[in-house]
């Protein structure tokens, strides 16, 4: 909880990439071989879900009073 | 929960007292939830030792959603309080968590391995998520308060980043 005026910086994409990669590798999952498990239909649904969530997050972050 | 009413529908004192009560009510419920969770945790430990680590992370993420806000305004006028809508933030957070879990479970299957990966991704967020906020205004005039819950905003952005990274890696986009 804070009244700091400046918006905190985003986490670097590299950190996030590393985290996701590491989570897969640690559990012995090969990303390439797992890709085939997704049907095109599912991909489309996930894409839509993602767009919706992105919009919601953007709306939420914007509504904050940035003074 | 009892509610105060002096007959005047616009009476501020009654409204404040009622709001205050609901906040205390909420806090009480939160405490109850915490107790429930710890009991569940014990049960899990007893049932299967293998799952303790995974379940532990899961349980913590329930506690995370505790957001506690109390605003107390007394003998004051012209008070403007603007706080973050924690409820919206929390439901957004749950939505993102669900989406991450869903993507993993579709691609890797609902196996132990998939669950471990999901929980590993969530664990990064579990440290700093309980927010307590108390605002007391007493005997004041023309007060303007704005608070921003930066923790939640960062958290939600980070989760969206993880979801995006995951989806890009799996060639969905």
Structure description:
- The complex is a heterodimer of chains A (67) and B (173).
- By secondary structure, chain A is mainly alpha-helical.
- Chain A has one domain (13-62).
- Chain A is built from 3 helices and no strands.
- Chain B has one domain.
- Chain B contains 5 helices and 4 strands; from the N terminus they run ααββααββα.
- Mean pLDDT of chain B is 69; it is low at 30-48 and 53-64.
- Classes of the chains: A mainly alpha (67), B alpha/beta (173).
- The interface between A and B is large, with 40 and 48 residues.
Based on Cα principal axes, name the global outline of chain A: flat
DSSP strand count of chain A: 0
Calculate Rg of chain A over CA atoms. Answer: 17 Å
Order of helices and strands of chain A: HHH
Summarize the structure.
The complex is a heterodimer of chains A (67) and B (173). With 67 residues, chain A is mostly helical.
Summarize the helices and strands and which ones pair or pack.
The complex is a heterodimer of chains A (67) and B (173).
Chain A: H1 13-26, H2 31-34, H3 40-62
Chain B: H1 12-47, H2 52-63, E1 67-74, E2 77-82, H3 86-108, H4 112-123, E3 131-138, E4 141-146, H5 150-169
Parallel strand pairs in B: 1-3, 2-4
């Amino acid at each position: 909880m804070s009244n700091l005026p400046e918006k905190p910086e985003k986490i670097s994409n590299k950190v996030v990439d590393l985290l996701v990669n590491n989570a897969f590798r640690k559990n012995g999952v090969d990303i390439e071989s797992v890709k085939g498990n997704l049907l095109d239909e599912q991909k489309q649904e996930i894409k839509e879900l993602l767009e919706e969530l992105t919009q919601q997050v953007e709306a939420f972050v914007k509504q904050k009073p940035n003074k | 929960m009892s509610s105060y009413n002096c007959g005047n529908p616009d009476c501020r004192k009654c409204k404040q007292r009622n709001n205050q009560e609901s906040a205390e009510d909420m806090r009480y419920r939160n405490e109850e939830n915490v107790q429930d969770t710890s009991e569940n945790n014990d049960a899990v430990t007893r049932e299967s030792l293998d799952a303790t680590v995974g379940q532990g992370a899961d349980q913590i993420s329930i506690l995370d959603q505790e957001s506690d806000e109390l605003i107390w305004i007394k003998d004051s006028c012209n008070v403007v309080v603007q706080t973050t809508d924690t409820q919206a933030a929390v439901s957004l957070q749950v939505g993102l968590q669900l989406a991450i879990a869903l993507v993993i479970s579709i691609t890797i299957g609902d196996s132990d391995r998939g669950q471990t990966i999901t929980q590993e991704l969530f664990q990064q967020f579990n440290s700093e998520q309980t927010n307590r906020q108390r605002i007391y205004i007493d005997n004041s005039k023309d007060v303007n308060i704005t608070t921003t819950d930066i923790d939640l905003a960062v958290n939600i952005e980070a989760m969206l980043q993880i979801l995006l990274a995951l989806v890009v890696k799996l060639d969905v986009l």
